[in-house]
Amino acid sequence: MSIGATDIAFVGYPVTDVERARRFYEETLGLTTSALLEFDDGKWWIEYTIGSGTLAISNAWPPSGQSGPGVALEVADIEAARAHCALHDVPIAYDIMDTPVCRFFGIKDPDGNDITLHQTRQAPA
Fold first, then answer.
1. Is residue 78 predicted with pLDDT exceeding 60?
2. Are strands 114-120 and 102-108 parallel, antiparallel or unpaired?
3. For the segment 9-19, what is each residue's pLDDT rounded down to a tens digit?
4. Positive or negative CA dihedral for 62, 57, 119, 81?
5. How many beta carbons lie within 10 A of that of residue 121, not counting itself?
6. CA 100 to CA 86: how far, in whole Å?
7. Are 53 and 10 in contact (CB under 8 A)?
């Protein structure tokens, strides 16, 4: 028996400073806000739709930091993404790794949450 899950609804990251987090996700990573909700005084829920998925940030719970879940964002050009992160002094958790199916590297957001930037390799024709 299954719960009938068909997709990932969203990945949520807790943040401590909403404005700092928004600058990182919107200005540094270039994501576009798709939902913005202040659901309690000073408690925010912000969503970024990326392809068919959603990344949410909120200051309603403490950051996961070192041991929490991670999200992988698909990019078109892993080398360009790495250069962009270096240009913006984004902390690199680990550098580009190659596998037969993808290339990826890890960064940290301002609260220490892990983010993987991932490029799927094209299947041979």
1. yes
2. antiparallel
3. 788 888 989 99
4. negative
5. 12
6. 25
7. yes
Averaged over 78-107, what is the pLDDT? 92
Q: Are strands 43-50 and 33-40 parallel, antiparallel or unpaired?
A: antiparallel
Short-list 108, 106, 85, 110, CA closest to 97: 106
* More confident: 28 or 71: 28
**Model confidence, pTM:** 0.71
User: Given pLDDT bands bounded at 50, 70 and 90, which one contains residue 100?
Assistant: confident
Domains of the chain, start order: 11-61+70-120 (3.10.180.10)
What H or E segment, with its residue span, contains residue 21? helix 18-22
- Judge contact between 14 and 111, C-beta under 8 A: yes
**What sign results for the dihedral spanned by CA atoms 81, 25, 107, 13?**
negative
Does residue 115 contact residue 94 with C-beta atoms inside 8 Å?
A: no
